[in-house]
Every structure is written in C-alpha cells, then in structure tokens.
Amino acid sequence: MNAFLLILKVTGIVLLFLLAVLLVLLMIVLLVPVRYRLAGHADRENKEYLFELRFGWLLGVIRGTMVFPSENPVSVYVLKKRLVPSENVSPDPEEQKEPEQEFSQESFYDKIIKISEKSKRWLQILTQPETEETLRSALSEMLGILKKLFPRKYHISGCFGGGSPDQTGEILSIVSMLWPVIGDHVQIFWDFEKEVLQLEFDAAGRLRAGSIAAAALRLILNKNCRILAARIRNRERG
User: Fold this and answer.
1) What is the C-alpha separation between 155 and 183, in angstroms, rounded?
2) What's this model's pTM, rounded to 2 decimal places?
C-alpha cells in the first residue's frame, strides 16, 4: 500500500513539474517580444536602393535578416544554425512546365448561373448585421496590432525635391500635416528647384505573440463572429 502511494506521489510530482514547464514555455512564447530593426537608403541619382530587416527572439536564439536587393535575401538562424538557406536554388525544369489545360464540358451560361447564385448567397451573408459587427471588430483588432507593431524609435533624414516649387510644395504641405507626430524623428532638406531623392531611415520596434493571441481570442469569443463562421460553414455545405 505504501509503495502504491509512493508511486502516486512521484507520478503527481512529475506531472506537476511537466505542467509547470509547459506553463513557463507558454509564458515565454506569449510574453517575450520579437524585436525588429529596419534600415535602408534610397538614392535616385546613383540608382542605389537598399532595404534591410533584422529580427530576433529570445536573446537571439531565433534571428534572421531580409535584405533587398540581394542575391541571398532571406536568412533565418536557430542557435546559430541556418534554418532557411539563402543559396539560390535553380528551378526544376519539370516544375516550370505549364499544366495542361482541362476544358470543361460545362457551358458558359451554366458557369454564369453558378457564379450568380454564389454571389447572391455571399451578398446575403455580408449584408447581415452580425457580419458588419464582426468586420468592425476584426478591423479594430488589426489596427490595435498595427499600433503595437509600429516602430517605437525611428529616424528619417535626407534630401527631397520634386523638380519644381509647385510639386515640392504640394508634398511638403502633406508632410506638414503629420509634423506634430513625426517632427522629432524626421530631418529632410527640401529642394524646390531640382528633382532629388536621397533618404536614409532607421527604425526599431517589437511585437509580442500574446498581443496577437489575445486579439484572436477576443474574435473567437465574439458572438457575432461565431454566428458568421456558422453561416459560412452552412453555405459551404449547401
């Protein structure tokens, strides 16, 4: 009897330990942010353009780069081991062959009728009040994620000219409306006579997976979202 209780006790401790490990891993995945850095420059006169994105997660355990234009644009590493090779792979000639076209015996009129019926069913779903509420909620969640994804630090500098005072002035008037927000981060010399584009930018930000998971959970728990999903499933079955 004592041996049986000891086995149960050890089993319970092991299960609790595994559960604690899983919870810690889940918290790490949800709360540790993915950090990114954007940098690049554009020079129209010398036809030089460069865009570079660097990202990392968990103190560089997972990191990667995206550089355009480049012969090796994408590289992803896990513990210093390359996960996504950046070597150019020559396409297989067999894969480049265009698939043979299959001609259906269905008449053009029948296709039009089917498309019309599907359009009516989709229009009926999209015009429901629940659909409008769901789309409004989804848009709100997406804007919230984009707000958190927006760079916390950024700087843009360089020279810009539209080629004439009128064109440069129009662009400057548009930028000036954003000046209360971006004024401390942007330093641009405006040339009202020449057509110039010489810009450099640098930005850094972060995003937690927990933010995306929370937004997805709120949509799943949304009553209108579940109603819309059920209607779409019923439409597909029908």
Assistant:
1) 10
2) 0.70
Domain ranges, ordered by start, for the chain: 33-88, 105-238
Q: What are the angstrom distances between the C-alpha of 103 and each of 96, 107, 187?
A: 21, 11, 59
Residue of 130 and 14 predicted with greater confidence: 14
pLDDT in the model for residue 202: 95
Going by pLDDT thresholds of 50, 70 and 90, the confidence category of residue 201 is: very high
Q: How would DSSP label each residue in 104-162? A: -SS-HHHHHHHHHHHHHHHHHHHTSHHHHHHHHHHHHHHHHHHHHHS-SEEEEEEEEEE
Length of the chain: 238
Give mean pLDDT, residues 5-13. 88
Rounded Cα distance, 235 and 238, in Å:
5
User: Would you call 208 helix, strand, or coil by DSSP?
Assistant: coil
